[in-house]
From TrEMBL:
Taxon lineage: Eukaryota, Viridiplantae, Streptophyta, Embryophyta, Tracheophyta
Family: Belongs to the ABC transporter superfamily. ABCG family. Eye pigment precursor importer (TC 3.A.1.204) subfamily.
Protein name listed in UniProt: Uncharacterized protein
Keyword annotations: Transport
Amino acid sequence: MMLNGGFFRLPDDLPNPFWKYPMYYIAFHKYANQGFYKNEFQGLTFPNNIAGGPPTITGEEILKNTWQVETGYSKWIDVAILFGMVILYRLMFFGILKLVEKVKPIIKAAFAASPRQSKLISENPSSSLPDEARA
């Protein structure tokens, strides 16, 4: 999930069909990195070393242009999404545990049940039958 979460690649560099749309948005790294970058860069100004550009550049411009961070919402939304993921994943894990707890005995019983064997009656002349029945 680290590669498709934008941890090593910028969002615009990810291939669109699979990696960006479902995977990028469910990866926790997206929200952790964006929240971190928003916390560090928003509201700041930096000197601009690009020739012909303005003397300063804002943190919002760095977020949008360099790091390709979505600035349409607050860093606290990113934190809330991360906590929501923690709760959701714990609930999913709990559900899986309960499901396995219920289904595992059924599966064990299905595999343990062998086909019914016919009862074999062996004839033993020295059995405890009366003498009249043996003759």
